[in-house]
Every structure is written in structure tokens, then in C-alpha cells.
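Predict structure. Chain length: 501.
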Amino acid sequence: MTDLSFLHFNHCGKTLEDLTKQVESPQNQHVLLPAFHSIALKKKERTFEEGSKAIYRTALIAAIHSARSDIPNTLTFMSPVKAEVPSSASRDRMVVNIDCSSPKPEDDSENRTIQAVAGQLGMTLSPSQRKHFVSFKPYYSPNSVPSKASRVKTENVYSSKNRAGLSDPFVLPLHSNRGVFSPCLNSNNTRRWSDTGSYLRCPPLFHPTFIPGKTKRRLSEPLWSSHLDSGVGFIDTHCHLDMLYGKLGFRETFSSFRELYQSSFPPQFRGCITDFCNPRVMVKEALWEGLLAEDMVWGAFGCHPHFAKDYSNVYERDILMAMRHPKAVAFGEMGLDYSHKNSTSASKQKEVFERQLHLAVAMQKPLVIHCRDADDDLMEIMRKCVPREYKIHRHCFTNSYRVIEPFLAEFPNLYVGFTALITYFRATEARDALCHVPLDRIVLETDAPYFLPRQVNKAVCQFSHPGMGIFTLQELSLLKGEDMQTVLATIRDNTTKLYGV
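Prediction complete.
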């Protein structure tokens, strides 16, 4: 195979024999062309002239096919400028200069061949000069679905290999086995704005020059170039800064963290609510006091159902002491978890859950609820212990809409938290649920360090952090069909109503 991307065809300056010699030159024989633009030169089956014309004609078809979506029925030929062999990085998109302003070639049969090919495609050739962007990526028609292999590449964050490496009981599967494609998504248009470019006009967060733990210097080049009004911002309503710091080996302030990862903190970031849900670690590491002393950080305290078996009067006292802090805005996360990852018995979980609900209601603090595979028992306990008008955050919802619908009806001040899981195509249940939950009942959360957004490369940060909530908002905007300004303003208003921040 021979790469033709280095050729610049000249309809007037070179003969077909010269072009063929250029194609067959030794310096160009080592270049491999991607399979979707390959041309097999069948030297034994064709004459010299037929082979040359086949090369000329096939390259023309490729250029016409790539440009036909944005060229109004005109196409011309390239000027005779020698181009270098493109690197792998430049093959995705390159500029082709096209010129046909010089006199006719000696052999008019070449021109007739070209006109015939263009005629079959319903296009006319005119003597004008243009620049076209020719894509060297595989083409998907609007009604086709990207290959399974291409989707697997974008979903490497939650691959089985990575999940096994984390060995973390908090990690959720990428999709449910009950998944059914969302009826509210247009199956006839699988190529969305978020696939081909950011709705925020900011480039993907690929910055291989910095790798935490290996490179000392911080990310100095901003990766955000948003046209959004920075006066309207967002707050990450649920993250775990203590766990994030532990995974990254970070021991400094949150302001230092934002400076270190400034390229992935957009101007719209206004702060985060960090959740401390392991009483033993909360007291032992004592990170929460220093974090809550900083700007843009609030706290929530409780006992996660994974740690309910260790719940004691001592841990309860520590939680209540922390809840006295003026920036402690919620009680939790707490709840029920009947998944295989939790070794605590259901009876013990219910006991600890009810105990915390009574304390939270007595303190008049919003509830942060965790639930996995236990929705029936959760509803029964909440009806018994929680007033109907109480403020509730159903944290990290990943299930179907039919599961959350009864809670939305029963508790009018309940808000549903969605994470960057919705940025993954295979998270069909969560994406479908988001389409049905009203926008004024949704809050944003990253659940950092979990759920790294699909659009973010691990070279930026190995784990999710509060600034990456902008990607969840972007996906929410796309799925809801609302502009980003409306989404930002509504979600920000919901956060204020729920938490008062």
C-alpha cells in the first residue's frame, strides 16, 4: 500500500507519468495508508496508463467524498506543492489546497475521466481555488452506529481491568444488566455534539505533558475557552476530597489543588460539598477541619452503609461534633446498600440508617441518601422517619426512572444527583432517567474521585475531581435539549434551595 496524502495533484503542471513516478518513488513506499483510504496498485493486471488513471481517479473520489458535505457543488484540483508525509497526529485533519487555474494538459482524456467521475457523484468542476479539510478518520453515516471497538476506546475509564485494579467498594458498574436503550434518545442520530466537539467550545482535556506523581511542574496552559457567562457557576454537591487526596497522595490545601489542576477547573466552578462518611477515618485523619476552613468548601457528615457494622456511640458523637461546624450543610451520606460489595447485614444497616435519620431531622439538616438495590426498604423507612416536605438529596442515581419516580412523587423537595456516568453511552438507564426527571429536581455531583468523565484523559488527572462537573452539565444540556446557560442557572438555583449555598 502507498500513502497518497503526500501527493498534490496538478491538473496542469504535471503529466500522469510524473505523478506515477512520484507514487512509486522509494521514499514513499514505506508509508502505510489507513485501510479506509487504501489503493491497491495492480501492476500485473493493468497497463501503465490504466494504473496511473486509477490512482488519479480514486484520490479524487476520496477528496470529493470528504468535502461534499460542505462544498456547494464545486470541486477543483490541487496545486503542485510538495507536501511532507503527515504524522499520525496530523492525519485526523489536514488542509488540501486545490487549484485548476492553469492551462489544459496535453492529454484531454485525463480531464474527461475526471469529469466522468465527478458526474457520477452529481458534482460539477469549476476553475476556482479552494481549501478543503479532508478527514482521515473512519466515516460514520448519520444513521449508523459507531463500531463496538470505537466505543470501547472511549469507555476505558470503567473497563473491567481498571475496576479490578481499584478494588473499591464504592465503584459502581458502568451500566446495569437491565439496561434498555433510552426511548428519549434519538437512535437515528448517534453522532452528537459531544462526540465531535465540545458544546462549550473548549478542547478535550488531553494534556500529556503533566502526569501527577511523575512531573513536578503544574499545568500552566489553560484548557478552557468557554463562551459561557462566568457570572453563573456551579457547585459540586457531592464529592470525597479525603478519598481523592488519598488516591493521589496529595497533602496540601484545596486552593493548592485547584492551582495544580487549574486547566480542568473551569471559570464557572464555585465550590464543592465534600462528604465524610467513614467515621473512623474522619477522626483518624482529621482532614475535615482544615478543608472546611478554606473558601469554596462545605461539608456533610454521616455513616455510609458500608461502615454501618462499626457504628457506635463514639462514632455518633464524632459525627454530631462535626455537624456543629458552621459550614456543615448536610447529614450523610447514609442509607441502605444490599449489593454484594457490602458485608453489613440488612438489619444492622436499617438500624443505623433510622438512627441517623432521627438525628438529622432533629438538627434540621438536609439528608444525603445512598441506596443500592434496596429501594423498597428505603421508601418504607423514609416514610416512617422523614417529613414529606423535608429536603433530600438522592445521591449518585444510576438506576431507571421507574425506580426514582415514586420518591419524586412522595417527597416534593427531593433532588436527584447525577454524576459523569451519564457521559458514557452504555449507561442507558441513568441517561434515560435523566431525560425524564424534571430539570428543577436535579443537582450536579461528581462523586469524586469516582466517575472520571468520558471526555477527560487520565493524563490530566487520574481521578475525577470537583471541577470536572462541567462535563456532566454539558451532557445534561445535550440530553435535555436545553442551552448551557439555562442548565447552569437552574442547577445552581436547585443547589441553593437544597443546601443554602
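Summary: The chain is about 35% helix and 10% strand.
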